[in-house]
Every structure is written in C-alpha cells, then in structure tokens.
Amino acid sequence: MNDSYIHNLIVNSDTFDILSADSEFYNFMGERLYFTFEKFIGESDLELFKYKVLNKDSSYFIIKMYSQIGTLLDYIMKISPGPNKSQIAIKCVEMNKLIDEHMQLIKHQSVDYNVLNLYNDKILVYYPDKMDVVIYEPTIDGRDYEVISLEDFSKRIPGDSNGLISSLKNGESSFEYIFDDDNSEDLVQVRGMSIYNNGEFLRATGFIHKNSRAITTTTNKPMIDSLTGTLTKNEITNYAVKQIDIEHREGTTIAIIDIDYFKNVNDSLGHLKGDEVLRSISDIIKQQVGNAGIVGRFGGDEFFVVLHNGYNEEKTREILRSLKNIVNATYAPNDEGKPVVSLSIGCACYPKDADNYTDLFTIADYCLYVAKDLGRNRYIIYTPARLKSLEEIKQDSATNHDLNIDGRNNLILSEVLCKLFAKLTDDEEVGIQEVLDAFSYIQNFQRVIIYDENARPVHIASRNNFDREVIEACSSYILDEDLNSIYQYDNVLLINNISILNNHAPAVYEPLKKQGVQAFIHIKFKDKYNHRYVLSIEATKIRITWDTNNIHNYRLMAKICAYVINKYGL
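^ that's the sequence the OP posted. Answer follows.
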C-alpha cells in the first residue's frame, strides 16, 4: 500500500483540533487548515465518529469525509489512543484508492514473479517475533513458499553467514552480502532492507540471487548508524556531495534537523531514554521522508536529510511541517513524566541557493541557527529576500563580532547578556541604542523598542526598514488597560499571535497590525528615578513562538537597559 494514501493524524480528543498530520493529509485539507477534524466528517456519520472516540473503540469502520470541493468520499478509519491521555491517533484511507492500490498490487505481483523467474531469484521475508524466514519461489500461480527457522536458513547459506544473520536480527536499514558456493561455480547474493513502523521492527525483506562468478554488487554495503538505522555522517555527506558536486542533480535539497532540548532528556531521564527518543524520532523522519529522499545521522541529536526534488518547495514544506507537528504531538508537554522535545530545521536547495555542497550546507546550517534563534520548534527554508545573503553569512562566520559570539551552537541569549554585562562592568561606555542594536543583531529579533511611561518610542533598533511615524502614531496602545491586565510572568507579556488580542484587548490589535507586528514580548522595568519603561521585542516578518524557557533572559535584557539608562541616560 502506498504510504501516501494512508493518513496518520494526532487529534485532541476533547476539541478535535488537529495536532499533527502527514503531508498528504495537509494536501487533502487545502484551504481548510484551521478546521477541527469533525468538520471534515459527513453530518450523517458524525455521531458514529464521536461514539467511537467516546467508547475508545479501535475497530475499523467506514465513514464519509468531505473533499476540498465538498463531495463526500468513503474512508476506512481506525481510532487508537494517542501519545497523551487527551489525544487520539487516527488512521484513515480513502476506499477508492485502497481498491485501486489493490488492483495495482496484483499487477505488480505478477510482474515481480516473472522477474524472479527470469533471474532464478527468490524472495525472503524475516519475521523477528517468531525468528522465522519465509522463502517465496516463482511458480505459475506464484503461491509456493516455505517457512523455516532462522537457524535452518543460516545453514542453507554457503560460507560464513554470521554477518547476514546479525543484520536480520538487528533490523539493519539495508544489507547486502555475497557468498561463495564451494559446491558449484555460483555466487549467492542476498540483498534486502528492514521495515519499521513507529519505531517497531516489523520484518526484513529482500531477495536471494544465484549467478555465475561474473556477478558484482551493485553498491558497496553502506555504513548504517547502529542506533537509528539511518546512514552514518560520512555516508550521508558523501551521498549529498555526489548528488550536488559530482552529478549536479538540480533540485537536490538538504535539511539539517536538530532535536531541541535533547540534552534535558539525557540529563533528567538518562541516556537509555535519550536513545529511545533518538530511535523514535529517526523513525518519524524516515517515515515522513519516505521515497522523497535519504536520511542520515550527523551524530548526537542531529539528523541530515537529502531530498531529491526540492524544486517542489510545497512538497518540501509539507514534509518538514509534518516532521515538526508529529514530533510536537508525540513529545508534547504532559504530566506523565514523558520527555518534551521539538525539532528545529534548516533547509536549502541546489542550485537555487548555492552552486556547491559546501556553500549549500553553510546556508542550511545558518537557517537552522535562525530557527533556533526564533524560539526553536520550527523549520526555515532559505529565502534570500527575508534572510541574509550567502556573502553575509560567510562574513558573519569569518568575522568576530564585538560580542565575540559565533555560530548557532554558541549564539545563546544568556551568553550575549553576560558579555554585555562584562563590558559594562569594565566601565566600557555603552549607549542604550548600542544595546538595542546588539539585541536585534545577535538574536535576530526583528525589531526592539523602548517605550517611556508616556508611551513614546524613545529608541528603536531593527534589522529591517520601518516607518517611525507609524510606530509613533500607534504607540498609545502601550498604556491600554486591557493589555496591562494580561501581563504574565511578573511584568513580562508573551504574545505569539496578535489575533488573540481581538478578544482580550481589542483596542490593541489594530495599532499592532498597522505596525506590522505579528508577535511580541513586553517587559516592564524602571530606572533609578522610578520612571517606567517597556522593552518591546517584536516579530514583524516571521511569526515566532516565544521560548518560555528564556523568561529570565528577557528580564535580564530589561535589567541591562535599566543599568545603561541609569549610568549613561537615554
């Protein structure tokens, strides 16, 4: 069955909000991205669906769902418990596609058996739960097979079969072995792959081919990361270099994936749990990438993906969005002691973004740093109009900034703040505008403003163009009573999407919209004369989910501003 036909979703069992879905279901949703799941279900079947959810009935059932154009389609559906108590997992497939796929499978099976017969090949399938091997041989009706134990299978393989048996038992991602048959002039080739579902090793499948000594392997056996079943760093790097620098395959796209907060998992839950998370996430990545690309592990908590058709940016976006959302749903905040992690992803395409592997990797790595910098839990596909040019990225890497922070792994807000404090305590004169410029430059905050107690924007720093007159004309919203009543975290207010202010502080929404603000953080502070200020950190181009783990650092930003104003004035 084509994986793209089978939809896998995680849904909130109370509100029916769709928490994650595969890329093909996002295609099915179309313009209905913000629909809750029950709105896709035909009215006559809605009661049945809710009954299944309420009674935790995990049997398959048939249900009608609305397509994008409003027609009702028959689906086979199964509802299972989700990763958390408040979630359900939904698996569904359209019946017409299931029938078509079945007919295609019959045709392909006939072709497969003809090919096997032509080359005198056999199919092998290994089932780890029973440690049995099923061997299929081509016949006219394609029905002959035998089931033997793994031990008996090893005895049929000429020569030392320990490596092959180990590959089968361990569920290696792919394997290939050639054996010398001393009893004949033939060589025996065994080649196959392992199949996983949600981290569970289901079976290994492949073929057994006997031929003359003229046989050669089609490829060298790739080096596989033993923990995750993905390619090793050297293998995936060599593959990417070959695709880009040697074969010049246009549309080749690379994505660097980093697991956010993974260190917390190892530190708090132990390395065994960390290994479990790595295996689970690698399976999610492999499942979502599917035939669209190749997955490798770069080491630690970082993965590397090479996609084959990156010119289809929407398809790339669907894959990355599905990765992010599925990991979000699987490792969401909970009260059950489960780890909480997310993904940050940087992505770039050859030759659109760079004409060689080294530069393309530099750009993708920069995009990953931007994703981290904007609060993690997001993917950034390189867009020159919105991000730095390759020359600027290289210059940033080669030049030591005044604050001496380099690279995405070292560019941490707390380090920036500490270095600013060090400059100030060494009596280096630093003006408030220089501080705001440093914040906007280092953290890539799109705009940073200090408002005084009269709601006047006294200092503005931005990496993008802005209209000061518009900001000044709309600044009175800072004093709005409704806005000030919803501050959280002791004088800190985090808003990830200004549209929610339509309900909580309606007079604030329009001024922010006019300024182009999509999300913001406000931190209140005072100087030594008890004058009140608001430090406003704003997202104007890219919507941001602010990192609540950085609340203490946002407060430190305001304290630095207060210190500089006290010592050097506005």
